[in-house]
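Question: I have long wanted to understand how a fold can be written as tokens. Here is the record:
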Amino acid sequence: MTEGNQAMGDQTGPDGELGLLEGLMTTRAMRRLTDEPVSDEDLWTCLRAAVQAPSGGNIQPYQFLVVRDPDLRLALAGIYRRGWARYEPAIAPTEFPNDKVREGWERNNRATVHLAENLEHAPVHVLVLMPSIDMTVHDDEGPMPVGPTHASVYPAVQNLILAARSLGLGTTITTLHRIYEDEVRDLLGIPERYEVLALMPLGHPTGKWGVAPRYRGAEKITSWDRFGEKRTP
């Protein structure tokens, strides 16, 4: 059991299987993956779990594109690295409030750099596609913007992540490919009407599962009855 698991208590079942709460609490972004293949059975398990996620009106406004071909993965990695080369210097902090924050950023950045440099070695890339549709409806009083279509996509993404976790597989949501999204569409024959919301490398992680550090705990970002009214757990 990892230190993070100990902190939250043992949530595994009687036969040692991963418990739901433990999976929720210890699933973290895995950016360091081996090139060990992922089986068809495990892939289908993740995809079937994804489509069981709730969506508005059960519309399921998403499709998945699984990329295993080594040449295509290399090409996707090249597009991703070009995006990262532009993005990294644009977001790099020039100063930090304290050493702890600096060390946390540097640790996370090392993992992000590793992913950019090794993306093609992840045995599976799962792309999440969404058609460009507007869910706004109208009546005599005007438009009713009940929310973006994305709200019916990301629950499926999280289900896929958690299903992967239950199988010992790691992944993370990446979006840097969107800087050159048209090239991704051209490479994989994706119709222009689809947004490529996420590129998720999937594989066997080299790191350990555990409760990830969060700078803002639930008590800091939760209000009760009125905005700004806080409680201590």
